[in-house]
């Protein structure tokens, strides 16, 4: 059994795998696919495999994606070979929920203003601080991550409205609406957060009319995927002050070009696709992979968190 990692876990994590699976030949090779034709299992972040790579494989049966998104993978080539794909859905919920709360509390409690005054050595108490308590938040994508954000927001006294494809009830949401009915609730939202994946249904889901329906005091946060809204529509909304702030962790083009207007806009917070980052990330991914590998070696061929390559999640 040959397992190829296309990224490099820390030495102690590599040792953990080798000690637990002495019968497995692990290859930890960053940007080196020479072992791909022999690999039975590949563990990847999902951005480094091409259709040509998949075609070069002879034994590959399972791709474990140490991420939630699979939009950059060669779907057709993988499907043609019947390769099982799974991901680590759910491990992002703690760091991403904390990132969402950090940005919201920072803006509500005027931390950028306070920090700026410190740099200027200016004693200015006109912070215009506000509170999360009593506000309303719409969360696009109330799955594992969105529900955790909802749980934390509810602890701060925020009314939560989940928005997904069907409007089906979801954990830690006081209300639910479908994508088709989102325009009906956007006017009462103080906070709008998206953690949606990139799928056929979510690409450019939010249009100009959605931002025009939002409060001028609203905070919009995209921690999911950059193709949720066309860049020109997002830019127009911010240049026209249709909402108060946009916290953007993802963009249609990444890295964000250094000449993009966002860099100099006071009402846009740029986060370089880091909301899920944590020193515990790979450790949590291995906690998903290891039980699945034990099961796979015992004959089970359906790992947890299977991905439907057609639906995109």
TrEMBL record:
Matching CDD domains: 2-Hacid_dh_1 (cd05300)
Source organism, top-level taxon: Bacteria
Span of domain D-isomer specific 2-hydroxyacid dehydrogenase NAD-binding: 101-275
Residue ranges of domain D-isomer specific 2-hydroxyacid dehydrogenase catalytic in the record: 12-307
Assigned keywords, A-Z: NAD, Oxidoreductase
One Pfam family cited in the UniProt record for this chain: 2-Hacid_dh
Family: Belongs to the D-isomer specific 2-hydroxyacid dehydrogenase family.
Protein name: D-2-hydroxyacid dehydrogenase
């Amino acid at each position: 059994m040959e397992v190829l990692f296309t990224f490099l876990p820390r030495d102690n994590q590599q040792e953990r795998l080798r000690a637990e699976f002495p019968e497995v030949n692990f290859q930890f090779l960053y940007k080196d696919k020479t072992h791909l034709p022999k690999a039975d299992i590949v563990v990847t972040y999902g951005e480094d495999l091409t259709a040509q790579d998949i075609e070069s494989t002879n034994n590959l049966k399972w791709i474990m994606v140490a991420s939630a998104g699979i939009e950059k993978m060669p779907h057709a080539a993988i499907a043609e070979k019947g390769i099982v794909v799974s991901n680590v859905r759910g491990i992002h919920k703690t760091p991403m929920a904390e990132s969402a709360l950090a940005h919201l509390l920072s803006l509500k409690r005027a931390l950028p203003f306070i920090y700026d005054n410190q740099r200027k050595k200016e004693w200015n108490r006109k912070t215009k601080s506000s509170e999360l308590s009593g506000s309303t938040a719409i969360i696009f994508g109330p799955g594992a991550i969105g529900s955790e954000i909802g749980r934390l927001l509810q602890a701060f006294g925020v009314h939560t409205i989940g928005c997904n494809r069907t409007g089906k009830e979801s954990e830690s949401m006081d209300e639910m609406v479908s994508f088709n009915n989102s325009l009906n609730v956007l006017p009462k939202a103080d906070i709008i957060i998206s953690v949606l994946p990139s799928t056929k249904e979510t690409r450019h889901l939010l249009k100009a009319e959605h931002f025009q329906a939002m409060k001028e005091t609203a905070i919009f946060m995209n921690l999911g995927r950059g193709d949720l809204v066309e860049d020109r529509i997002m830019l127009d909304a911010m240049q026209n002050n249709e909402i108060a702030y946009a916290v953007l962790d993802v963009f249609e083009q990444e890295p964000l070009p250094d000449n993009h207007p966002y860099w100099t806009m006071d009402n846009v917070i740029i986060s370089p696709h880091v909301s899920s980052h944590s020193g515990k990330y790979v450790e949590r991914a291995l906690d998903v992979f290891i039980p699945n590998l034990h099961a796979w070696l015992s004959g089970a061929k359906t790992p947890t968190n299977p991905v439907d390559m057609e639906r995109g999640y």
